[in-house]
Amino acid sequence: MLSLLQLRRTQGFAIAPRLRAHSARAPGGSLLFRCAEVGGLLLLVIFLGTVLIPSHWTSLWMDREFTGWVAPIANRLGEGLILYGEHGHLPMPPLPFVLLHLLTQGEATWLSESLCNFVFLALTLGMLYAGFSLFMRPPLPFLTTVATAALFFSLPKTILYDAMAQCGATLSALLALWFLRMPAPTRWGRTVQITLLGLSTALTLLCKQSTGMGVVVGVTLALLFTAETRLKGGVSLLAYATATLAFMALLLALLTPWLDWQGFIRDVLLTGAEPKGGARQLAQNLVLYGIDFSQHLFLVGTILLLGAWIFRVQLNDVEEVENPAPSQDEASWRDLVMAGLTVAVVLLGIRWFPGFAKHIPALLKTGHELLWLGLLAGLLLALRACFPRTLSVVRRFSQGDTLGLLVLITFCTAVFHSLSVSTFRWSYDSNPLIAGVFATLYFLLFEARSPNRRAGRLVQFAGCIVLQLLAWSHFAEQWVACHRCTEAWEEVAYLHGARLPASAQGMRDLVHQLRALAPNPQVDRVLLLPSDPNVESWFARQRPALSSPILFADQYWDQRVEVDLEALRRQPPRVIVIGPRQYWRSFQRHWNKNYGTERLIDAVQRELLPRQYEHRLGQPILHRGGTDFMDVYVRKETLPP
Question: Is the pLDDT of residue 361 over 60?
Answer without folding.
Answer: no
